[in-house]
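Deliverable D5.2: sample structural annotation.
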Amino acid sequence: MAAPTEVVEQFLTALADDEIDTAVDLLAADVVYSNVSLPTVRGRERVRKLAQLTLGRPGAGFEVYNHAISAAGNSVLTERTDVLKLGRLRIQFWVCGRFDVEDGEIVLWRDRFDWMNYTAATLRGVIGVFVPALRAKAPK
């Protein structure tokens, strides 16, 4: 069985590779997805529908850049940059996540982000649609 950090890395990589079903299959049937300050989503199939609605649309995409990942027991913490894409729009922002993994499945996925950072990233993304030189670049 894969280590908890490996499960989380596989999950995020599958999302970035536009393999929604592969990613969602790494979630427990009763997973809890909490994007702090947004409504909590409960259950693998509800998360699948949400992912298909947001990432499964034509022209939509996701990138992830892990800056740090660590585990204590079955809890995995990530500090990363997420990128949401829709056509030429690129919204790149900072995220911290906690994933609890049991028996090779993610049972809790909790992300946190700063609304000010997200708002600034959205504004930069909109400007970048019209002035590509100002688009956020992938972090190093």
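Annotation notes: The CA atoms of residues 79 and 96 lie 5 Å apart. The helical segments are 4-16, 20-24, 44-54, 115-130.
The annotation will be released with the project's public dataset once the embargo ends.
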